[in-house]
């Protein structure tokens, strides 16, 4: 293939990557598209892992024998690599390995504090596993709000911020959960919300500007209702 333009060069690089790392696609005559469900392992990852586990002895990482210490070091290296990739500090974040994203969401849901001082704020287009957190929150007595989408399946940050401010003013700091990319519509919500949510400051919204579109999830046996509060502060994590 010619490389007259940057696009041509990029296409060549992708073709080379496919030939080197994923030769089994052409060998099997398949085109794989389900990367949202599961990614394909590159050949170098499979062969590198095979060399590692056949070239050393790895045991339970919670003991003090040589095999256990080797596993402990490997786990620590993996956690450090994840933090480095995410440009995150180990002073602020902890890496917990789970079977999949659904299992991770469940851990967070099970750890929601009891009582009405920790609201849960969700976007309407969260994955079902995230929306399922509502049951845990309601069971713990926590208030839940689902921020509705606009006609174009997007939501304005102003609407999200208003809901965060209002619920934090009424109940205290809570948890804000939203998808980086909706698996229902494909819409990508800004990653900047992660940093914008925690520092919601005082007087972020006054009584006349409190949210009119915060749809409170009714929970079992209650009707859906909409409420508005004067906002003072909010602290949420995504």
In short:
Helices cover 40% and strands 6% of the residues. It has 238 residues and is an alpha/beta fold. Strands 3-1-2-4-5 form a five-stranded mixed β-sheet.
Helical stretch count? Answer: 9
Total strands: 5
Main sheet: which strands, in order across? 3-1-2-4-5
Q: Name the helicity range.
A: 25-40%
Tell me what the structure shows.
By secondary structure, this protein is of the alpha/beta class. The protein is 40% helix and 6% strand. Strands 3-1-2-4-5 form a five-stranded mixed sheet. A hairpin with an 8-residue loop joins strand 4 (215-216) and strand 5. Residues 201-238 have low confidence and may be disordered.
How would you describe this structure in keywords?
9 helices; single chain; about 240 residues; five-stranded mixed beta sheet; alpha/beta; 5 strands
Topology:
Layout: H1 6-21, H2 23-28, H3 43-54, H4 66-85, H5 101-110, E1 120-123, H6 128-131, H7 133-139, E2 144-147, H8 157-171, E3 175-177, H9 192-196, E4 215-216, E5 225-226
Parallel strand pairs: 1-2, 1-3
Antiparallel strand pairs: 2-4, 4-5
Helix pairs in contact: 5-7
């Amino acid at each position: 293939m010619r490389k007259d333009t940057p696009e041509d060069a990029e296409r060549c690089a992708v073709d080379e990557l496919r030939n080197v790392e994923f030769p089994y696609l052409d060998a099997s005559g398949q085109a794989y598209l389900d990367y949202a469900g599961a990614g394909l392992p590159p050949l170098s990852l499979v062969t590198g892992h095979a060399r590692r586990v056949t070239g050393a002895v790895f045991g339970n990482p919670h003991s003090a024998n040589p095999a256990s210490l080797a596993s402990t070091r490997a786990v620590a290296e993996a956690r450090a690599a994840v933090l480095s990739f995410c440009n995150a500090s180990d002073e602020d974040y902890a890496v917990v390995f789970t079977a999949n994203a659904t299992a991770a969401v469940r851990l967070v849901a099970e750890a929601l504090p009891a009582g009405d001082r920790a609201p849960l704020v969700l976007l309407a287009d969260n994955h079902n596993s995230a929306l399922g957190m509502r049951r845990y929150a309601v069971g713990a007595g926590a208030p839940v709000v689902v921020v509705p989408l606009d006609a174009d399946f997007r939501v304005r940050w102003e609407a999200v911020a208003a809901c965060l401010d209002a619920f934090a003013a009424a109940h205290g700091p809570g948890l804000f959960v939203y998808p980086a990319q909706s698996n229902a519509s494909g819409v990508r919500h800004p990653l900047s919300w992660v940093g914008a949510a925690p520092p919601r400051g005082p007087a972020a919204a006054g009584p006349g500007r409190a949210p009119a579109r915060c749809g409170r999830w009714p929970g079992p046996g209650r009707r859906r209702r909409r409420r508005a509060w004067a906002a003072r502060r909010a602290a949420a994590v995504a």
